[in-house]
Each structure stands twice: as structure tokens, then as C-alpha cells.
ABC transporter permease (Flavobacterium frigidimaris), 154 residues
Amino acid sequence: MIVGIDIQNYLPHRAPMLMVDLILDIDANFVKTIFFIQEDNIFVDKNIFTEAGLIENTAQTCSAIVGKKYFFEDDGTENENVSVIGFISSLKNVKIYSLPKVNDTITTKATLVSKFVGDDYTLCTMSCESLLEDQILLECEINLFIQKTISAAT
């Protein structure tokens, strides 16, 4: 188990689009993250973190598993000058039960269902849930497309 990893080591996202603070647990098939919702977050409306924010948080959580392939070698050494792009290709069975508020910390968990790896891209399906303490906020299945791009430094 890996504890307290900065998500920026696994994603190209930066503020104001970064919707995950830390990875609490990650392996080849599972990831768990946390995110503290601040008042100035672009997905906050009237002190409520919107549906779009929950979905973006979920997508970024899922991307950490796939992003790991591009940002780190199998032995754990970091790849430098790596650039990736990613897209949500589909959302399935989305259920949003409740929306968190400003100053809440949500936990998001994702489990790999399937993955196809090409030369410079990965397609994957993940089963996801977001929670506020023990309350389930969101459940869904998400399909992601992640592709390595040519870096200007290479």
C-alpha cells in the first residue's frame, strides 16, 4: 500500500482543474483518493460541489491507475518530460445520491474492470464510488481514454 501520494505525480491536471488532493492507496487495479472542497473551487455553486465536480473528481481518481503507466517505470523510477491527454469516453449507470458542501472532504474509490493497452494509449473501464464519511455520494462506471503525447522536450 502506498500512502499520501501527490496526485500531480500521476496526472497532467493543475489548478484550477485539479479535483484530487492525495492518493491514499493505489495498485494496478484499485485507487483511493481524497479531496477537500474549497469555497473557490470552479465546480462550487452556492456552497455545493456540483455533479460535474463529482464526475471530474471520479475521472481524475480513475486516471491515476492508468497515468501511473506513463509517469513511472515498472521499477518505480519517474519518467521525465511525459505528457498525456485523457478523455472520459463514457459514463454508465451514474447515480448521484447527494452533493457535498464547501469544507467537506470526499473519498473516491475506483476499481479496474477492464483495460486495453495500445502502443501509446490505454482504454479502461472503472467501477467508482465517492463518499462523504460513510455516505455514498456517487456510483458509476467510467470509460477513459488516455494517450501519451509527444513532449516538446523530446
